[in-house]
Amino acid sequence: MRGPVLAFIVCGLLACTACSDSSAPESTPAPRKTKPSAKKPAASSGAAASKTSAATGPVTPENYTYQTGGRRDPFTNLIGTGASTEPRAPMQRGEGLAGMMVGELTVRGVMQSRGAFLAMVQGPDKRTYVVHAGDKFMDGTVKSVNAQGLVIVQNVNDPLSIEKQREVRKLLHSLEDAKP
């Protein structure tokens, strides 16, 4: 019983030493066709040949084309690939309140005229505008004006957001205007 087990262990050790021996010839796959212009340098020993083939990298066939099969090419650049190939023009802003975004406004005053509240807002151009309920901005609409300030429904332009609109309150006496 000891004889077959001992012979099996010896064969296993010989196989392991043969695999780890660097001078032993490696099994290589079948040679691929290369471009006629590419010449292989002649190597004098097996170790030198394996070093040069590793430095040149993988060889691709001459007439290789990617077969899409209904999938996208994984090597194409995804940035800047839209439906149109012409460059986009910068977004044109409208005149006055229609060209201002909600985040650019500050409330400077609230007044009451004929039973309705009006708000005075200052834009990024440092000009003051009078705002009524229902006036439209670039990314929102004034929902209401009250004695404390404005309530604006802002359109959210975020594809990951569940909500497409949110209420923004612009107050007359806010923390950003407070002096330290």
The helicity comes to: 10-25%
Kindly provide the radius of gyration, computed on alpha-carbon positions and rounded to a whole number of angstroms.
37 Å
CATH class of the domain at 99-171, please? Mainly Beta
- Could you give the order of strands across the largest sheet? 1-2-3
Ends apart, CA distance between termini: 94 Å
- Secondary-structure element sequence? HHEEEEEE
> What CATH architecture of the domain at 99-171 would you give?
Roll
Strand content: 15-25%
> Main β-sheet, in a few words?
3 strands, antiparallel
**Topology, number of strands:** 6
Uncertain spans: none
| CATH third-level topology of the domain at 99-171 | SH3 type barrels
**Whole-number mean pLDDT:** 76
Instruction: Give the overall shape.
Output: elongated
> Which structural class best describes the helix and strand composition?
alpha+beta
Number of helices: 2
